[in-house]
Amino acid sequence: MNLRDIDVFHAIMTSGGAGAAAALLDTSQPAISRSLAKLEAELGFSLFDRIRGRLVPTREALLFHAEVKANLVGLDRLKLRAAQIKEVGAGTIRVASLSALGHGLVPRAITAFSRKHPQVRISYQVRTSNVVRDLVASGSFDIGLAADEIDTNGVLYSVFTTPRAVCVMPLGHPLASRAVITPADLDDQGFLALAPEDTVRLAMDRIFAEHGVQPRILVETPYGVTIAILAAQGLGIGLVNPFIIADKMIQGIAVRPFEPAVHFRALLLRPPDGVNSGLVSDFMAELYAVRNAFGVAD
């Protein structure tokens, strides 16, 4: 049964005749007549009696039209939903991020995106990189930002940013007078360290070993923001991702470059199906725009 023929029948029933239906559907009256004859042949019963040039609905037509109207309501809902999906995608964006980008960069991207798409709901979580990876790999989340030590099997990924690590310390720290911090400066210093599995921590351990340096590790944490806060409280010195302190939300710290250069590396993750809705593409564009606006050097 052709949907076009159903539309013709419905137009005749609602407009009162073949001529009015032709105008409503922007077609010719002979085309209306052909479609109606085809539908009646398929149904096996007459829909209209032809009385003095008018189409008068049969009892069967009235019964059939009641079913048609019920189904057209459902079809209208489908059309409306399709229009909504075209306009705003699935209506929800699910984003997960590692802590280093999750408290400054990503919230700014969320704000910019929400102002352009106020009708879209955003589900957002700040988790460890391994959890972010699992959320994206399972298809539970649309976009993830994670450190490069994760297992990238089962996800699509690209390098999002590779910022150079910086030293943070209390404003009154003895090393705050230095323009650049070197490994020798950190020997026997109270040190705020990243977790042992972190790639920057591993790189720092190699550098310290090569220079015969042994800082006094006071705290180990997977979160650079914790290191920055502890430094602001006067506890010690540590290396962090510069995106953590780029928006100056953490006060009371001095920031200095570290030589030799050590780089963080964050990946942008997508589920394995790799399908980007318009919303997902728009959100990723906001992430890149905010990244560029922060002006953090790689």
UniProtKB/TrEMBL annotation:
| Domain HTH lysR-type as annotated: residue spans | 1-58
Q: Please name the Pfam families in this protein's record.
A: HTH_1, LysR_substrate
Its keywords, alphabetically, are:
DNA-binding, Transcription, Transcription regulation
> Where is coiled-coil annotated?
none
| GO annotation, biological process | lysine biosynthetic process via diaminopimelate; positive regulation of gene expression
Q: Which domain of life is it from?
A: Bacteria
GO molecular function per UniProt: DNA-binding transcription factor activity; sequence-specific DNA binding
Xref: InterPro entries: LysR_HTH_N, LysR_subst-bd, NocR_PBP2, WH-like_DNA-bd_sf, WH_DNA-bd_sf
Family statement: Belongs to the LysR transcriptional regulatory family.
Q: What is this protein called?
A: DNA-binding transcriptional regulator, LysR family
Q: Which organism is it from?
A: Bosea thiooxidans
Q: What is the lineage of its organism?
A: Bacteria, Pseudomonadati, Pseudomonadota, Alphaproteobacteria, Hyphomicrobiales
